[in-house]
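Troubleshooting: if your tokenizer reports a length mismatch, compare against these two reference records.
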Amino acid sequence: MAIDSSAAGPERSSRGKIVMLVDNGVNGDSRVQKEARSAAEAGWDVVLLGKSPTKKSQKWWLGDAQVRLLHVPTPMHRRRHEYRRAVLRSPLAYPPGPLSEYRKQRMKAWRAELNVRSVEARRNGSSLGAVRLVPPRLLAKTLNKWVRFRAGRTEALAQRRKSMDSPLDRFTTAFWVRTMGDRAWRRLDPALWDFELAYGKVIDRLEPDVIHANDFRMLGVAARAKLRAEAKGRKVKLLWDVHEFLPGIKPWNPHPRWHIAQCGHEREYAKYADAVTTVSGTLAEMLVERHGLKALPEVVLNAPDAEVSPEQAAEPVPDLRELCGIGPDVPLAVYSGAAAPQRGLDIMVEGLPQLPGTHVAFVVLRPNSAYMQELKERAAELGVSDRLHILPYVPHYQVVPFLAAASVGVIPIHHWPNHEIALITKFFEYSHARLPFVVSDVKTMGEMVARTGQGEVFTAEDVSDYVRAVKSVLADPAKYRAAYAREGLLENWTWEAQAEVLDGVYTRLTGAEPVKAQQPDSQVMA
């Protein structure tokens, strides 16, 4: 997403200070950007703290909201035992660190030196010199085998420490969970402290009235800041914005302790939330059951802006079809959003041989990621690489008009608990772009598309059924686009409607006077 680096507006009265926390670099997170900008437009003093992708801090403005990206050192991403020698488990392994690689390189250098000296001795006709080099060359060969053996033990140990699937590993994990309960994350994933150490003092200096914690990793940071403020006699309210159901996600960190740690961390600090918002009614009910919340969380949908500022409207929107190098009549299926195997993007590539003439565009945050490279290689194997296009994100306020050039919007996600319970961001973006849908049969989105008639539902991970759905939509796109003419459908799926809900939560938390957002001159999006 593009950065709005314009200077902040003039000084104005504030309804209170909100510090928003997010564990990413803000760019690419449209929900967080819209939350910050709309809250500032509603009269709140907003500072959005995120994680810098570099070692340098960054600062810019989103409208009247200040964005600050903090450098987050990560020395604790390695667990304590990973810094120690495994004397009992693997006594021949080298200590953690660069020693193993150094020893291998040192042996290569020694053997190379002996080889050169041997060549020089033969070149000079010195038979005695060549004979004298035989013992050290044999010694070097023997020691090289020994060093490589120890290096192999070191690599195997490192892999075992990553997989942690031995009986001893399972026992120690269970031991910490049993003895420490939800607090066990301190042993299982101490990397969560890295966020605290980077964000904590900054939050304290800002002295917010409300801390808005986005998702589970920021919850603990916000809760501890709230407790510190209360200890100094300052009242701070904590709003926890839950983006997904943590027990139901596919862990993005493969370490077996990671998911256990995150769930415990969330359970420990959920009780400190003064209010909770989330992305769907189903998830709201699940959160009440899981954490014993006193009130049902407010639902703030991941809907797109219905209006944009004159400055944003003046920016030219990239032409999706031009970027793909195709004309207006070429069938184009688009996917926009996070790219990961559980998102099911591979089915769009696998289906191309059965959809002659149809092109596929992936609009993703990292076009050169390993997953995207895998899909490109697969497209080449199938002989369809000329019909696959991988493009970067556009600013969030340009997503809808950008996608509108496609023929069909695809959501091919797999069946994971978290995928079943919400209408995700791209659902609303495709809808406002008035795209016919092809969506997998995940519960909430599949049922919505079937009910509204916006598109076709296919069986997740079934290439043949996916191809059927695409062909059905392309055969009569007007039939599916007609669903958007229904009165009130798109009007309720706008960020402006969601911003009112969020502002109501801030107002109740702080006791501030309800003030209608001072909206800048805007342009309605087509």
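Reference record two:
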Amino acid sequence: MTTDRLMALDLLVSVLTAAAWMSAGVAAAARRPRTAAALFAVALVASLARVWSVLALAGAGWWFVQEKITVALPLLVAAGAAATALAGPRLLRAARRADAASREAVKAPAVAVPLLGAGYAATAGIVQTFLIGYPADPGTALLLLAVAAGAVLGTWRAMSTHVPGLRTATAVTAVAAVLGGTLVFVPSGETTAEGSATGGTAAMAATGSGTGSHEHHSASEGSASLMGAETRPVTDLRGPAAPPPGGAVRRFELTARTATVTLSSGRKVPAWTFNGQVPGPPLTAVQGDLVEVRLRNADITSGVTLHWHGYDVPSGEDGVPGLTQEAVPPGGEFVYRFVAAQVGTYWYHTHEVSDLGVRMGLYGTLVVTPKGTAAEGLDLTLPVHTLGGVTVTGDRDQPLVRQAAPGTPVRLRLINTDNTPHRFTLAGTPYRLVAVDGTDLNGPGTLGRVGLRLAAGGRYDLAFTMPSDPVLLRVDDRTDSVRITPESGPPGDGAAAAKGAGASATADSAADSGAVPAADGQTAGWPELDLTRYGAPAPTPFTSRSRFDRNFTLVLDRGFALTNGRPAYAHTVNGAAFPDIPTEVVREGDLVRLTVVNRGRETHPWHLHGHRVLVLSRDGRSVTGSPLWLDTFDVQPGQVWEVAFRAANPGLWMNHCHNLSHADLGMMLHLAYEGVTTPFHGAHSG
């Protein structure tokens, strides 16, 4: 059973356990001894099942059961044992007799309250998991114990005027509540994390005053002074003024402004735009060129920046407000410069109020082609976005129709600019997935009848030779995105294509046109491609057996926390929300391993700025296909990803969930190189 299914099963069992204990107590208070006895038996079985589900889930890692083993199970076992010892014998005797005296006996607080108390304890465990979240600590444990004990005392007092030891029990409960509250709400003062060397323990560096400053620069400046390193501001880490020898200067101007855009259907949508269009103008360069982009803000009141998603620019060009620059206000401008060293498919977007800004249209594409190669065939860059409630490809809410002669090389550059994953299918031709996140795969095999799940922010490059029949790209198995028809055929929608042909994902059978799915066939039943098994292995500069200088673990969850100074049901990392998540501190040259664990029920596309990461494993299984160098990877519920990178791009970097609404609710932190500081004082706004 997969980890996410075990998580769902444990949730179901925990709710059933709490409901059974509570129902047994209510039935006892209602003078129904046989019903109460039956529910008592169900509660015992459910409690044992809860113990089993937690132990089974522990096989996936301590992260998934930490609060269950340290808080939820001890509360449940203690309260269940007490209920069994105090109420069980009386309840069973009353159920056998079922007379008036027995019905009156089970109503007694000595029977009903322990049963209800076990229900309160089981409910406290659920509250810890779903409202407080990971990790459990002594403070939250004491608070939950105090709340459960207070509920028991209140219930007993409501059922009887005499509660044995009420004053003493109330005093102990109050002390536990005060102590727990003190431990929970007094700041720990941790603002930076050095990480651990291989085989070592994490060294946590405490800096600052512990007041939970909301300014980007505090943690980074603190880490620099703590390490005693020579400092340099992030403003010194900028791109060059001139291109390398042989390179050209590619100059672009982007003006952010509000506008109403017209989609291909004629529908008008209010938007935030670059140069009055959504997506913004496509930026293209040749490897070795100097890209210079002048950003102006006409009327975006919240401000705007440019972040180069997946492109390892110098830190001062990264476009993170409050960290690498101030947001560009209305009437202001900022010039970005960087060398186009990486070939491939990328995109740009605002990083100020980015959840709203990107959703409203402040994004565009960046494509860098190899030096010395001539464009050939049909090359389409296809950003997919949800704008005004509809799925658009580029600026079209209708299928994009293109023609190509049979035998023409075709490349489709898919970019997911949304917050959630999209599923792509390509029907009508065998094809290869030749690049992921701008990096070529090694030995990509021929594909046919498969779905391609693309993480938010991620990119896939598909390549094929145009066949003599239509080819259809579909999004989420319901939206026709691109239809390519052969030039010799009708330029319309190709509706005459045959339906129902099957396909195989092997190279031999997929090359047979009879095995390729027709362009109008159904795709919902196609299995998803496992990228960790696709392509051919190749040597990598490091592996999971390498010695790592830094090891960081990020446990993703939900829980109540302060985010930007406001209490919220936040998306948390290691139990905290931005800006209170300790900064990860590295040295230039470090080999860094990052373990990302998803305890929650939502997918988190994880994105580290300024670095590509090599996937080491997913759920403990090593990559057996092509090496995967990614800048965004989808951490689905219950998954554990291990990735690594070489710290070779000094600066201050965001490390966050690229579901930007999750980032806005706290799921982001910083990675800082020793000695790098920032003069900026603005709080980042998602």
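Descriptive notes for reference record two:
- Confidence is low (pLDDT under 50) at residues 198-227, 489-515.
- The first helix runs from residue 3 to 29.
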